[in-house]
């Protein structure tokens, strides 16, 4: 765990959950697994505050607990899970792309609340969608429920582990912490709920003053006292499934760049057929026959069975190994290689990393376009001596040497020694420059974490420096909104707007631009 990651985790926790939760989370990230007594002692917070903070972190899967043999419970922070907060917008946008606005709000509610029952999610999403609709239109609970079922069927949401039902024994003391379990077969089973109703709009201030709403509110409170039909069955977002979707998109894009659009559509079909049956950490998809793939191709994609077989043979024979052949039954059994970062990594993983633009995008900005040319040359040729780099890149010897040493000092390239003799004498040793793709990717990821942390700190500083001006702007906007609601004249509104001077307005615009940046 690097200092940049710890700093970024601390800033993310503070921004989303407040100072107390941030203090507990950062302490656990720095110190590792700790019992409750040590957390209270070392942080100096009240026991009640620590318990509530841990509840929040556990609710959002940012902290896990484990019952030790001695009988006490230890808590451990999940740093990688905290960093996933940065990807929340991408998860939400993906849900919107696949399942429209309803899917977007379902995923957003689950991410905001950590864990929720299906009935609570459906009601909340239906109310939010009704708010955005025209007057007289409402969102039916059944429509939201259907989208939720589709998300569960494709494994984008999953059930949370439950406390197993055990026979009650009044003599036995309760365990210090419950052990949560779940059957893998039940993880995506949606309970049968008869959710009847429509989304409700928020009442305006005038309606709140009327006496009718009191009786309705009491009636609603009476109804809500009964437990919902799915009480105790909680759901959460399956982040691994979203990562699997992103990975599949990367593979399809790489196939399109390597071959053509038809090949990428065939691979997309294979991935779609096995997206639910294949584990997110499996090295390859489930074997699919040529006949199954042909039947599952999109309706508007008219290619003959013979052409499909030729494309599959071409993909299987390609040295990058995007597709592998595992048998001859059913016209041929084929799989898609999806092993990432685990030895031995397939050639297409190296290809995806090598030709990803983010890998060499920083080079022209930091070292110039010639360094980027050398870097791409090393990616293509893998191992080169300094003289070969000069010749292939067509760069003078002095400049090439300087650029290689610069990239070597920044860990963009590495130097490999191959001695001719056991004494490693420099005159009898080959010095080959190469690019360690995984090492470079990790280094760039570390720099990204550091940059995000610096940007968040800068945003906090800008907001703190202009706190007085922001409060004044909010007060003026609130006054304007209330006067517009009461039907004030334009002259009065203009007079209120002039409370913020031209220099202050310019300062506000600069602040908003910097914060957005």
* CATH superfamily membership of the largest domain: Winged helix-like DNA-binding domain superfamily/Winged helix DNA-binding domain
Mean pLDDT score, rounded? 81
Main beta sheet strand tally, sense and closure? 3 strands, antiparallel
Total beta strand runs: 11
Percentage beta strand: 5-15%
The domain tally reads 5
- N/C terminus separation: 28 Å
CATH architecture of the largest domain: Orthogonal Bundle
Rg, Cα atoms, Å:
29 Å
Number of helices: 24
Strand order of the largest sheet: 1-3-2
Reported by name, the CATH topology of the largest domain is: Arc Repressor Mutant, subunit A
Assigned CATH class of the largest domain = Mainly Alpha
Helix/strand class: mainly alpha
| Helix content range | 55-70%
Shape by Cα distribution: globular
Low-confidence stretches: 340-348
Family: Belongs to the eukaryotic RPC3/POLR3C RNA polymerase subunit family.
Protein name: DNA-directed RNA polymerase III subunit RPC3
Domain RNA polymerase III subunit RPC82-related helix-turn-helix: 7-65
Domain DNA-directed RNA polymerase III subunit RPC3 winged-helix: 366-435
What are the main properties of this structure?
mainly alpha, WH-like_DNA-bd_sf, three-stranded antiparallel sheet, 5 domains, Arc Repressor Mutant, subunit A, RNA_pol_III_RPC82-rel_HTH, DNA-directed RNA polymerase III subunit RPC3, 517 residues, transcription, single-stranded DNA binding, 11 strands
